[in-house]
Every structure is written in structure tokens, then in C-alpha cells.
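We now fix the convention by which a protein and its fold are recorded. Here is one such record, which you should read through line by line:

>
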Amino acid sequence: MRKLLFAAAVLLFLPLHLQGQSASFRYGTDFDYFFENREFDAIRNTYYGQDGLLPVESCTFNSLVLTPSIGLSMPQSPTVRHRLTLGIDIRRDMGSGAVSRKTLDELVVYYDARAKLGDGSSFKAVLGTFPARFREGEYGTAFFSRNTLFNDRNMDGLLLKYRTPRFYGELGADWIGMKTQTGRERFMIVSAGNWKPLDWLDAGWSGTFYHYASSETVHGVVDNNLVGLYVRANFAQRTGLQELSLKLSGLFTYQWDRKFEPSQSFPMGFESMAVVRKWNVYLSNCSYVGDNLQYLYSHTDAGGFQYGSALYFGDPFYQCPFWDKVELGWEPRISDLISLKIDFQFHFSDGGFLGWMQHLGFSFNLDKKRL
């Protein structure tokens, strides 16, 4: 904590010496609240395949995170800008008792640059430990569950972003784990993009390429790569609705436990998403049909530890040969700084009703559009 306070003092003091270079002091504050209640008692009697029961249980998540930050911003030219930022994640899990020192030590330290290239195009880059919300790609719950996005808030690495009026693409690297006595070496390459040839039609891709390697005591490497290709039509302009869309996706994986499997596996599936939205209220239906995209979930490594959520970051429902989710929600337009979402999800498989969730998410972001 003393190191953080010292660094903050340096950032506060530097602008006094950089006025001649047009450097300016910046500050920001993010606040996120996450509540989700899961009711899945009936799932205990629903099998998803040969490996056992679906790993979803009834529980409640109730947490908040405050991220104050300070930094310097320096324009290089009218079209190029540089920024250094230092912040800290302060997390509180409701009902957990006293705040621990570890809770206060999630540092956010990064450099970012932005360049306007003309014709409405731009290039942005960020390097360091920075909020994962800087990713703008549509990764979906097959890639990252809602719970994962709240708990794993930052990327450690690099993110590059390129945008034109009808195209967006991003490429990033996230160093998730360093090799230690018990910790596995883990890193992930992420990529996503979207092309909008017509006002009502767009297509794109999402990909995560995950390398789950050895620790100093447990040896073995697992590859878990997932690519999604999609096309979407939105007929809202012809109907007077905010949204009337249908998104069709193909999900393709490359997976290999190099120590215990003789060869690679390629599970794949198909997903559809239909959304109707009016007055900021929406009703959506997501259906998945295909292979078990997380077939190694209940397997164990050479040390006897289950891979589980350390290998897979998406919703566990993609272990089902068929899964359907009906969601009813409300996302009111409050301001550019504040977002609110309330929703109810109902989950079904080929075995019938699985359970349901109730969710409340609130976010306040003082500098929401800086990247």
C-alpha cells in the first residue's frame, strides 16, 4: 500500500513540472455492483453426459468494486495522445467480514495511446494491467461467463484496437498466471471483430486461444482454443422497435490435454440468439446445440486437481448437447456515466427445466469512453 501511495504522490507532483509540454492531470473512478441469485436445485437430477452432473449450484453472489485512478495525459499532436494511469481495485464481498489487505492490492497500471488516422478511422493501444472492459468484442457467454467478467476484472498484457466507420477489430494478450511452486503458467490470446456492410446486417468473429501450462511441481500442458463466427440481422428500423435481431453463430474448438490424450479434439456447436427490445425492456432467447465444449471440465491434471473453471471461463451450460436460455430484462438509459441492468434468466436442457437466475448489475464510470 505504501508503494501505491508513493506512486500516487509522484503522479500528482509531475504535472507541476510538465505544464510546458501540455501534460494534464487526469482522474477517474469506476464503481461496479454485482448481485446474482441462482436457483438450480432441480439440476441435481439432470445429467449432461458421461462425466456426471452439470457443475452449477444454487448460490448468491453479492459484491462491489471501487476503482479510483489517477494519471497523466499528454497530446503529441492534434491526432495523437498518450496517457499513463495508476489505480487500485477495492473489492467488498458482502457478508465476508473485514476487508483484507489482499483486497486492496489489485493494482491497475497501464499506458495507452490513441491516434486518429483520418476518414473516421482510429488506432488505440493499451499496455500493462488494465480493465478487461476495454475489450469491445462480442465474446459471448461461451467465452466468458458474467461471473467471470466481474471477478477477473483486469488484463495483464496488451490490447490493440482498430476502427473504421463500418469495421472494428481487436487483438490482445493476457498473461493470466506465472509459473510458481503451485501456480500454473497461463496466458490467453484474444481477438474479435465486426464488419457492418449494411445498416441492418453485420458479421464478425470472436476467439480465445488459451495455453494452460505447468507449475514447478505439476507438469502437463492443455490447449483450449475457441473461435466463434457469427452473422446478425436487425430489423428494428422497419418495425419501430429498439431491436429485433437474430444472430446465428458457429462455435469451434481445438482442445488437447497433451499429457493424457493421444491426439487433439475438435468439439463444435451452433448457437442462435433472438432479441426483441422496446422501451429499454428486452426478451431474448439463446439456444445451443452441439458437442460438449468443456469436455475436460471434470478431468484432473497430474497433481489430481480438477481443471474446472481454471481451464474454462464460459458458462458451464455449453457442456449440454442442448441448452436453451430465456431472458427477460430491463436496461434503462440513465446517463453516459451510469448503467443499470436487471434481468431474469430461465435455463432448459434436453432433460427439461434446469433452474433460473435473478441478476442486478450497476456501474458508474467517470471516464467511460477513454478507450
About this structure: Residues 2-365 form a domain with the Porin fold (CATH 2.40.160). The two ends are 27 Å apart (CA to CA).
